[in-house]
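Researcher: We're reviewing a set of sequences before deciding which ones to prioritize for further study. For each one, I'd like a predicted 3D structure that I can look through quickly. This is serine-type D-Ala-D-Ala carboxypeptidase. If possible, include the structure in token form so it fits the rest of the review sheet.
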Amino acid sequence: MRKVNQNGIMLLIVVLIFSIFFLTIIGRFMYIQVTGEVHSVDLVAYAENMRETNTTLQAERGKIYDRSGMALADNRPVYNMYAILDETYTGNSSVPLHVEDAEHTAQQLSNVLDEDVESIKSRIQNGIDNDRYQIEFGSLGQGLSEAEYEAIEELELPGIYFEQTLQRYYPNGLYASQIIGYTGYTDDEEQTQARGAYGIELEFDEHLTGKDGFINYQRDSYGHQLRNAEETVQSPEDGFDIHLTIDQKIQSFLEDALTTVEDAYSPERIMAGVMDPNTGEILAMSNRPAFDPNTRDNIENWYNDMISSPFEPGSTMKIFTLAAAIEEGVYNGNETFQSGQFQINEHSRTINDHDRDGWGEITFDEGILRSSNVAMAELLWNKMGPETYLEYLEDFHLDRMTGVDLTGERIGTISYGGPWEQITTAYGQGSTFTPMQIMKAATALANDGEIVQPYVLSNIQDPNNGQLVEQKDREVVGDPISPDTVEQVKDLLGQTVTEEEGTANAFALDQYTTFGKTGTASIPDPETGLYMSGGPNYYFSFVGMAPQDDPQLLMFVAVKQPDVDYRYQGSETTSYIYRTVMENSLHYLDVSPDQENITHTDETTINDYSGQSVDAVTSELTELGFPVDVIGEGNTVEATWPTSGSQVFTNQRVLLRTDDQMTMPDLTGWTLRDVIALSRMTNIDLDYIGSGLVIDQNIEAGNTFSEDRRLVVELSEERNDSEEDEEDEEEEDYFE
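Model: Here's the predicted structure for serine-type D-Ala-D-Ala carboxypeptidase, in token form for your review sheet.
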């Protein structure tokens, strides 16, 4: 009996436990049913969130235009490819929506993407073997063009899908690349989009960057939008458009001229800019080396040298020394001084003219034409005084950044501690300035003594409604000199171009009057701190304007260490760029010529001589001033270097290849540029040792050779030309 009671009690306890457990579960379900929450999580909201999906509507980055409305930076659609591998994605569809056949898919994609079949197949098969829902294709499937996208779509490959996005691109490639800059990418929790990383793209990134929109809707387990589901759409807000003062046509003139000099002279650096001196608008600006912002491959120079690379400008600084002396009333052009050398006293260091012996006792006007350092020393030390001149450097804004609306601007240093530094600053040594500082100061010569602010932004526009967000206009920021001083300076600088004694004869334009100042400055050796010597080791520069009476364009150009044999050849590079760009730009702007045509004799165009007599062609080119070398023993010209139609300087070597077996010329004294030309013309491989001029060659002069030979030359900086040695000594004294 007791055992039965015990069993009943145990059964009652078990029933009671299960009843409590059951009631607890029922109660929990009833609580969830009534409240819709689990652990403070709203299940209704959670379910809706799981069903909801957001699709980003990418905002378009603002475009960058030149002054005529031509796009310099634009956006184009690109496509990122991915593959869905999970067969559940197909669901009840009558056609497969996932990748079924990895082999077939890989074969079809390889035809479009020019990729190995096995490489594509392995990506897909690896995803299938690892039960991946979907895969991407890395760089192979990123940024596909519209043509590639359409070609793959036409294949109708199951499981291959695309995500469209916008890619920044630059229609003109390297043109103005260091002004326009480029974009990079940011990746955060909300969006992935291009952001400015350099140049205008960085400077005005806040304006260019738009605000992405979105589409919100509910979906089923397969990702398809539910029928009759609510849809929320937030439209994207595109970024503002940037309109620059850059003129694409003038920029093209500049880029082409820089490329010509770069190819012919292989300089270390070139920097050049064109400005409207009346308004301060920058119409063109470029540097070499440059880069293509679409690829950004092998960038050699991360700086916009026009604003970021101060250097000792040399004699272009004499513009401001002359202007200061005239403004102070201490300049008398007819007064004479003893040229050649200058000393403060018998114990001081000596200032030398570039002609060490000078030109005897000459007037200050002639000293300006001859670019006399002694004239500058006399004006600063004995006429104005260093303190007064320093005030003019400040008035010309040469003591500060220009404030141009570009990223990366740096400022030079005015070395003015003692008498030597004060005097050398007057003719452009010791102190450093950027080209943009010099251009800004020079605008005073086009505006009756007023300096205008340089700028590259014309306006910012909202593309959604066409309204202007910001507008730039002419701004006067200083007035260091009077209109009378301006006219005297322009007249003297004009004579440096037109008079026989002038140093700027090579810069005369064909149909326009012009004025300006040359500069030749030594370059400090970063290892020793001493100035380098030798033909190419200078900054060759020029700043000038045209036409003279009413300047419409201001241009600065500097070429660092071009491949020239002698110092005096350096102006070939700067004068070619200046004349080519200024002449073409003035005609393009419909500026009326103000002088009769001037024919330049230092450059010409190579005719098509193929099929003509070697002797006749050699005679013709020699009369034109070209050194000519014949490659071969034939009587008929087969090809020339430079090629026909090329515009070249009359002292440039011309090679004639004949219709017979090629013969090796004597390369002694040739520049590396000339030897490279020979290699390209004859298709012979080239190796070289050293730098400077050729002193030895492995294929003896007069020997025949074929394309399968390898030419090896040795070059040396040592020169036997006593005249050049003397010039270098003079330069060292001049710039010490």
